[in-house]
Known about the structure:
The protein is α/β, with parallel strands linked by helices and 267 residues long. The chain is 43% helix and 17% strand. A seven-stranded parallel sheet has the order 3-2-1-4-5-6-9, with helices on both faces. A two-stranded antiparallel ribbon has the order 7-8. Helix 1 (17-28) packs across helix 8 (237-248).
Amino acid sequence: MGTLEGKVAVVSGSGRGIGREFALKLAAEGAHVVVNDLDKEPAEETVADIVAAGGRAVACAGSVTEEGFAERFVNTAIDSFGGLDIIVNNAGYTWDTVIQKMTDEQWDAILDVHLKAPFRILRAAQPFIKANPTSYHRKVVNVSSVSGVFGNPGQANYSSAKAGVIGLTKTLAKEWGRYKVNVNGVAFGFILTRMTEATAADEAFVEIEGRKLKVGVSPQIMEAVERTHPFGRPGTPGEAAGAVYMLCTPEADYVSGQVINVDGASR
């Protein structure tokens, strides 16, 4: 019996990267998981891996910023598994530049995916949560960033969105305590993902909603991390998943309104 046996979880952006690790970890602990990705194939691959390991999962592909997605996401959990116990708002990406070069499109796109989408998903979940009280505590984990806590040059849009996630988390913790829901956040530091594994010199790109976006970290930043970080390295997706899982356990039933920096004490 896993710690989360029989619980129903939705994890946005869980077809790849750290989101995939969240889905795999929750499923390994017994949760039934709704896997989301912008693209159908990675979502279905993660579902297949969960099922092959003996778990239960279904895919709900599509952009979290689409009109009506939030309701479809929530209803997929309810229709497929009969409930909704854990919400992990993870989907997102970066589109960086300094503020004088940042367009309204860049600003709006990042605020939409990182802040408006979690807001919509939580709003869509509220009627079901209110109408279906439980004897146990439900969990919400919102993914923020140390950029939202401390700021980061070139990320006015991303830092603002992630700071907003912190405000959303603290407010929902106060609103939803009456429903026996714990609402917490994780603020990740440097975690190795497809966005950060490449170096800036590699000319690596990802395509997101028709936009070709450059990814990668400069060798100088990676060198600085290895030289100055207390652990001498970035975090792994598995370590990021461990923090999310921890906040979903019954042991965290009296932890709410908190945002944990998951950065290996780098700040």
